[in-house]
Automatic annotation (TrEMBL):
It comes from Streptomyces mirabilis. GO terms for biological process: methylation. CDD domains: AdoMet_MTases. This is Class I SAM-dependent methyltransferase. InterPro entries: SAM-dependent_MTases_sf.
Length: 224
């Protein structure tokens, strides 16, 4: 998960949670709903669900919204070239300090290797980045190679929601608001064809849901 850090780290619950490796902190929506953010899991060794993502990765890999970098670091340990990007400076600093490679960059900004990444990861709800899954997926298809794949974690329910959110701690301290989105597997399957993407795999592990998407190809083998 990734958020903008527009406040000093000592005041931003998300930045503070990243610095301490703990929490608890929550993703709060404007209507009052909230979701617990498992920051401690982002610092731990990859779970079995994470492993199902990692075993589907071919390098080079771009981990979008990498947080403290557990996935890209695990790939590097497997000798698979992987780079994380995150707009949160604290997340990027943590990734690098723990032995990963990361850039403090938005996915919508110019990035190295555009059109050449074989795998792009959108884990931990990061399909919500920017608040517009269609725009995010269009951008991701520009980043991957014609033979590449997007590995996307989705909600377990059929939801397609654009909203505003912020990170909040148990004392009510809030980070800055940002556009966010929630998308379930059925909704992603519905919008994929209009974006020139085909679903090539779908699976669940440890109460988490994932889809693999690849550019749809014509008879000539080029993306349609």
């Amino acid at each position: 998960m990734t958020t903008e850090e527009n406040r000093p780290a000592r005041r931003d619950p998300y930045a503070l949670a990243l610095r301490t490796g703990g929490g608890p902190v929550y993703l709060r929506l404007t209507d009052g709903r909230w979701t617990w953010l498992p920051v401690h899991r982002w610092y731990a060794q990859p779970t079995r669900a994470d492993e199902t993502l990692l075993e589907r990765c071919a390098g080079p890999v771009l981990d979008v919204g990498c947080g403290p970098g557990r996935l890209c670091r695990a790939l590097l340990h497997q000798s698979i070239f992987a780079v994380g990007i995150d707009v949160a400076p604290r997340a990027v600093a943590c990734t690098i300090a723990l032995g990963g490679t990361a850039l403090c960059r938005s996915v919508f900004a110019p990035l190295p290797g555009e059109g050449a990444w074989q795998t792009l990861l959108l884990a931990d709800g990061n399909i919500g980045i920017g608040g517009d899954p269609r725009a995010l997926l269009r951008r991701c298809t520009q980043l991957i190679a014609p033979t590449g794949v997007l590995l996307v974690e989705v909600e377990q329910i059929d939801v397609a929601e654009r909203c505003t959110a912020w990170v909040e701690d148990t004392h009510g301290h809030r980070g800055p608001p940002f556009p966010w989105a929630r998308l379930g597997a059925p909704a992603l399957r519905r919008i994929a064809p209009e974006l020139g993407l085909g679903v090539t795999d779908e699976w669940r592990s440890d109460h988490r849901s994932f889809l693999a998407l690849s550019p749809q190809c014509t008879a000539r083998g080029r993306p349609s």
